[in-house]
Amino acid sequence: MNQLKDKLIAAAQRLQQxxxxxxxxxxxxxxAETMLERAERLQANRFTVALFGAFSAGKSxxxxxxxxxxxxxxxxxxxxxxxxxxxxxxxTHPHGTVRVVLKSREAVEQDVIRSLAIFGLxxxxxxxxxxxxxxxxxxxxxxxxxxxxxxxxxxTKGLGEMSAHLGGELLVDMKAFKGxxxxxxKACFAEYxxxxxxxxxxxxxxxxxxxxxxxxxxxxHTGVAFxxxxxxxxxxxxxxxxxxxxxxxxxFLLQMGRVKDTFDMxxxxxxxxxxxxxxxxxxxxxxxxxxxxxxxxxxxxHPRIYPVSSQTALLARMHEAGKLAGSAEKVYRQRTGTPxxxxxxxxxxxxxxxxxxxxxxDFLRFTLEELTQIAVNAAMGEIRRAHxxxxxxxxxxxxxxxxxxARRQAATKAREAALAAVEGLSIASAERDLLKEREELVYYVxxxxxxxxxxxxxxxxxxxxxxxxxxxxxxxxxxxxGDLLRSISYDLAQELRATTLRLEKFLGxxxxxxxxxxxxxxxxxxSGLTLAPYQPRKVETLSFADELPVSLASLxxxxxxxxxxxxxxxxxxxxxxxxxxxxxxxxxxxxxxNTGSAQVGEQFASLLTQMVAEERSRVAGxxxxxxxxxxxxxxxxxxxxxxxxxxxxxxALITAEE
Length: 658
What we know:
nine-stranded mixed beta sheet, alpha/beta, single chain, 23 helices
């Protein structure tokens, strides 16, 4: 791993050297600055790895195994969990420093009001919302609502202590950090927590982001999770050996399936934790096959799946560091099959048994080797571009006087023609293509939603809720309808987020195509000019409505079709209700998508205009810089011997990498 870090630093140093060589040459200053900026990014050496998984899948223990130490405590509840970022230490934040960024009072208020609405209660502010908590009948809380009740109780308990800190941040030590993770009455107020910690993982420049479970009820977590899924260099999803995928898992994995093919490379890894529970290799293979089948049903093909035992791997790391003692040593002996009278098995053997050795080898090859090589290749591309320009300047400077005069006149015309070509390129077809792409993507969102409608309906209207055991069936039906509407709006919002990512990639392709077209147009007048490659923009993901534009009153005729639980589940009552609701929801779903599509359309039309203007200006700047150098060479304002010496030194930088 150190060799890969050294490779990045070496590439950064080559960029810095090349920048020094060309910074004094007329027309090459901008390229010299670009090299220095890229060198800074290489030296910063940051790769973000996002860790996802359902609550209780063993994410924290897996993260600890990756870090080699018992650092992260287990979070008590998916509702209260905050985002934990394990960062490389810095000068301002040394090893062991913890930065807790707290939610604003408004954010806490919104979360509380949203959770309260699950129980059919409304409030206008935080205090009123917490006072309403007493109206909830604890004995009749359905399983899906329990996390919300736990969250509300945690806010009530912790508000007095945390109120003064809301909207701010705290710098605390490791002991206090564990309190913010493990104590619900503190965790529910944290937006995210940054732990600056030195370990083999962070020492390589890797930032590990431990996200809340896929079943977190925090509405903002859905958007945050999408951002990390989209922007992280690698994505890890942890599931537990003998846990079936929950509905929350499935929704999250469906989103991964929607966006997987938009990534330039497959950056997803799937971990089956607690693999040591398998009674045999055959049983383990069966579980892995089951996980693969579930992933395929979510649109994730050819997944990389690794059965691991986080606990065994962590024990191996602790043994490696000489920190294994007491009960931990006893468990280590059990896992490695080592009798008490014999020496402890080597850590390498335990790592092999844990499955982590195979995973880490593949994971590090991807995060470090592949991503490092991409960064190095881009750096060398900058240096080669400078080499080509230097060669052109030397050719011009070495021409005789009469030839230089002729070339000067030709260059004046060529410059004007090249700039006219840059300015004249039409984007009408790009605008039409972007509109067509958006309309097509949104059209299929509605098709997929109603293709899933039966599944969403069955999840909401289920036998566990619609039991005739004395409960208020009218109220239960209203609860089922509320769950269905929330599921539909959630699914549509996720689909629209995936649509924005697809359009972001489409916009990137359009940008790259424009630069390639400019390259062809400009090359007719400036044969030695190689344009800098297009750099894709990061697009801010829009927020979409939490609710469908539909009144509950308009759906009551559907609920009136319910006669009894027996008729519903054993006769045709369920089918009638589902079909009627599906018809009534067509228009609200279309209205939701029309609004969302208009949001997306406005955003991307603006982005396209902005992108074209910026790229046009950038290309024109490169044309101007190129001809500035050409005229300097033709006017003999450049020292040819010095240029040749610079060319040799830049060529040596390229040869050294090859």
